[in-house]
Write a structure and sequence with these properties.
The complex is a heterodimer of chains A (about 240) and B (about 160).
Chain A (H helix, E strand, L loop, with lengths): L6 H32 L14 H28 L2 H32 L8 H22 L3 H15 L2 H11 L19 H50 L1
Helix pairs in contact in A: 1-7, 2-3, 2-5, 2-7, 3-4, 3-7, 4-5, 4-6
Chain B lengths: L1 H33 L9 H10 L7 E8 L5 E3 L2 E7 L4 E7 L11 E8 L5 E9 L26
Parallel strand pairs in B: 4-6
Antiparallel strand pairs in B: 1-3, 1-5, 2-3, 3-4, 5-6
The chains are: A mainly alpha (about 240), B alpha+beta (about 160).
Chain lengths: ~240, ~160
């Protein structure tokens, strides 16, 4: 980890990984979408509307996965002060927010034909909405504080405090009575989802993760470039000021 | 450099311990104090307990959920009558209106309505609760026997 904390080395790592990441994403997306939505079976109770699963579930996984990634990066940034960790956390936030919104919207569209309602304030839906607000708050805090060092510390603490919501989301369906059903994939006694649906779903999950890494690299590059430009401008300004003296 | 390393170790300790303490505190508060009030609905056993304790009176608005007992659904004009069970207690529900497509005997529902004297319950809304099983048609029984569902095994 310390080895790749160097931006130049990390740039090289990104350049090596990128084609693989994009390849995995395209392959998994092709298999998952075709096997899930075209050739896969409908559900015994829900019929065709079950197919929104292949977008909704991976989005919800990413919503939580990216939050945990932000929290882990924030932890590294707070303890070891690696600037790259902070850049990774900051670059992840909008991606996580979009996936959370996608999970909420697809869930809502799925809820109407199956449950009979777009929204209900049960433990699962409410805690995911809180997650969305956490992402927004995290991004707003980055914007609100001008001093990058202070902003980095404040956002890292916010990200870590928010991790308490992750077990709440995961176990809300077990701890309380909810309209949302309990877990179907990640559960102690094994998945309760037919293999013909499970494999395409896992492929979609992998595709979404690869997409995250791909976009994360691009966003991190942009943030690192912005930093370099800022540093160069500062140097130029100092140089000009020195010349004027 | 030794000082820097010691500071990092101290930061690691402070951040880890305070994070663990915070998460533990919030979860304990939620689970110990939040308890039932964070649930979306009551189950028939909860209703019986509340009636016995005098906490549930006629005219109270509640959400009631559980499994639709097999063989309990009867229709009369637009009024549907069915029994909600959690395998320990049952409540008979009357509802006038459209039912969601997934409403089925042996499947879960969440209803909202007014509790009336004598244990009658008139629902103003009925939502279907999907279970955690996903399967192609014909691979799982369409109408599982009531109270074999993992969610319905209440203490």
């Amino acid at each position: 980890m310390h080895y790749f904390a160097n931006p130049t080395r990390f740039q090289r790592l990104m350049d090596i990984l990128r084609p693989w990441v994009v390849g995995v994403m395209l392959a998994m997306l092709a298999y998952g979408l075709l096997a899930g939505t075209v050739f896969g079976p409908a559900d015994r109770l829900q019929g065709e509307s079950v197919r929104i699963l292949y977008i909704h579930v991976p989005s919800a996984w990413m919503a939580m996965f990216i939050y945990v990634a932000i929290a882990a990066a924030s932890f590294v940034a707070l303890v070891w002060r690696h600037p790259l960790a902070l850049i990774a956390a900051r670059a992840s936030a909008p991606i996580g927010a979009v996936f959370t919104l996608l999970a909420l919207i697809t869930g809502s569209l799925w809820g109407k034909p199956t449950w009979g309602t777009f929204w209900v304030w049960d433990g699962r839906l409410t805690s995911v909405l809180v997650l969305f607000f956490l992402y927004l708050g995290y991004m707003a805090l980055w914007q609100a504080l001008e001093d990058e060092e202070k902003a980095g510390r404040a956002t890292s603490i916010l990200a870590l405090v928010g991790t308490v919501n992750i077990p709440i989301i995961k176990f809300s369906v077990d701890w309380w009575n909810t309209l949302h059903q309990p877990a179907s994939v990640v559960r102690l006694d094994g998945p309760t989802i037919d293999p013909s649906m499970l494999w395409p779903l896992l492929a979609m999950g992998l595709a979404f993760k690869a997409y995250y890494v791909w976009v994360l690299f691009a966003r991190m590059e942009a943030l690192m470039d912005a930093r370099r430009v800022q540093a160069a401008q500062l140097r130029a300004a100092q140089h000009a000021a020195g010349g004027a003296l | 450099m030794a000082g820097l390393r010691a500071r990092k170790r101290q930061r690691l300790l402070v951040v880890s311990v305070s994070l663990a303490a915070f998460i533990l505190a919030v979860l304990t508060a939620l689970l110990a104090l939040g308890g039932d009030s964070l649930s979306l609905f009551l189950q028939p056993s909860d209703v019986s307990a509340r009636v016995a304790a005098g906490d549930l009176k006629a005219g109270d608005r509640i959400r009631l959920g559980g499994l639709v007992a097999p063989g309990s659904v009867t229709r009369e004009d637009v009024v549907t009558q069915f029994v909600i069970t959690d395998c320990a207690a049952t409540v008979t529900v009357r509802y006038a209106g459209l039912l969601p497509d997934l409403f089925k005997e042996g499947q879960g529902v969440v209803t909202e309505g007014i509790w009336q004297d004598g244990g009658a319950f008139t629902a103003s809304s009925v939502l279907a609760k999907h279970d955690e099983n996903y399967a192609p048609p014909g691979t799982l029984p369409d109408n599982p026997e009531a109270c074999t569902h993992p969610e319905s095994t209440y203490p």
